[in-house]
Design brief:
The chain has 420 residues and is α+β, with helices and mostly antiparallel strands. The protein contains twelve helices and five strands. The protein has two domains: 177 residues; 119 residues, 2-Layer Sandwich (Heat Shock Protein 90), CATH 3.30.565.10. Helix 10 packs parallel to helix 11. InterPro entries: HATPase_C_sf, HATPase_dom, His_kinase_dom, Sensor_HK_TwoCompSys, Sig_transdc_His_kin_sub3_dim/P.
Length: 420
Amino acid sequence: MDTTPTATATRPAPPRPPHGTHPEGAARALTRSATAAWAGGVLYVVLLLLLLGGAPRSSPTYHGVASLLAASLLVGVLRRTPLLALVLTLLGATAVVVLPPRPNVTSVALAYQGEFLSFLAVDLVLGCVVATRKRGTAIAAVTASLLVQLLLVGGFAHGESLTVNAVITVLAMAASCMVGLLVRERREHATALRAQEVSEAVTAERLRIARELHDMVAHSIGIVAIQAGVGGRVIETQPAEAREALRVIEATSRETLSNLRRTLVALRKAAPGGDADGEASLAPSPGLADLDALVAATVDAGLRVDVHRSGTRRPLPADVDLAAYRIVQEALTNVVRHAGAGHCRVTVDHGDEELTVEIVDDGRGAPESGSAHGFGIVGMRERVALLHGRLSVGTRPEGGFRVAARLPLPASTDVAGEGR
């Protein structure tokens, strides 16, 4: 019996999230934040009681300024529950105005003017409520705060101070509400912009995947369909040719499956939390370097293809290289499936400022109802537009169909794009 120990394959432990993002750490942080917020609220109430009970003979201005500063302890409560912070500041400001005994001064109106400074904290909190809460809640909070402040001003301000304090109360509250509305509109606008950006990004990615799948599958399926038809017609009379058709079908199918697997693995790697188990490295995206293999597969489908290259061949950016390859691939697919042509010419010109690819056939051209075949030419136009290039498609006067794409090149293309 073989006693050789067997090695057990173990999966590597997943990486630990950064500090502060672990669920337990996040829970502790939230607990500390809540504790600090409620401690600040309790301390605010205690300081107000000490202020009103320990210094009853102080000036009203002193009470107003002190209560305004004490309201800074409610920052934590304001962040978590703005309505509770509004209630606390409103009760605190009301207590500062109502509870202290009346000072014995000549100008009663002037003496009590400083007490209303405590309502500035109420206005600041009110602005936060308007900015963060629903409109109905914000309107109710504004109405309640305005009524309380106007009642206190009417009951404890006299003479000229009554009008001044009433006007200041209304103006301060209006200013805080306007700031809150501006913040609210800015936040809603930013949220709408983010939603629009996400929607556009999702749409662009869906179109990119649709183009890749279409260009990848349509060409291969077209070749498979043609070869299957050829094999079916000659399987009894010309078995060697039928076997060659089956070989082409097998090779094309395997290549298509490999490309699909590579695309799906790439999508899984790009997805949040995705992995690429079983695929240590991905094959590079196709480009003009694979043009000969593409042409060979097209020739197997019964179409004679001539390739002409001009200009100085050099590494191209990955997006330009892939787009040029897909345009040639889709054009050849349309020739094989729709043109009824026997000959096709592919021209690739490496210019100094742009790359030009042209595909011309001697087939029947486009039907009078339109020149596009399904989504193929639509995908070409999208690829060229993304690279700020130009695409020309249409029937030639002398017969056949022509596809020409001009793709701008960056100032320097000495370094190949990623994956090439």
